[in-house]
Design goal:
Elements: H1 13-24, E1 40-46, E2 53-59, E3 62-63, E4 66-70, H2 81-88, E5 91-95, E6 100-107, H3 110-123, H4 126-133, E7 140-143
Antiparallel strand pairs: 1-2, 1-5, 3-4, 4-7, 5-6, 6-7
Length: 146
Amino acid sequence: MVIEGDYEPSTWDWVKEQVDLYESTGGAEGNTLRDTGLPIIVMTTIGHKSGKVRKVPLMKVEHEGEYAIIASKGGSPAHPGWYHNLVADSNVMIQDGPAPFDTEVRLVTGDERQAWWKRGVDAYPPYAEYQEKTDREIPVFVTRAP
């Protein structure tokens, strides 16, 4: 399912600017988290309340063609807004390079979550600190391979 509709950019300037740069250059620029040098992907969802197309840069956690979508929100006690979009509609688009592709996500639990969580922490060590800061178990979604 191709995600189409009215795009509503993030109200956070840095998110909007990074998504715009990433998409306008086919992932050649804006492809790392700020000054960390760590790679990102762009995820597109449909807003569960607004119905608008929403886009967010996320840490790249990839394994055998699947991607982890980690709802950390920096260890906040609340889930990121886009978490609710995934719960409402598992269809997303992922862009990791020049072209986005359609996929579905599923929330993983148990041993599968632990394996993906480890991959996430290996890719972005601050995830471990984020988990320590919050009482909630940080949700991990996984895409299906394209």
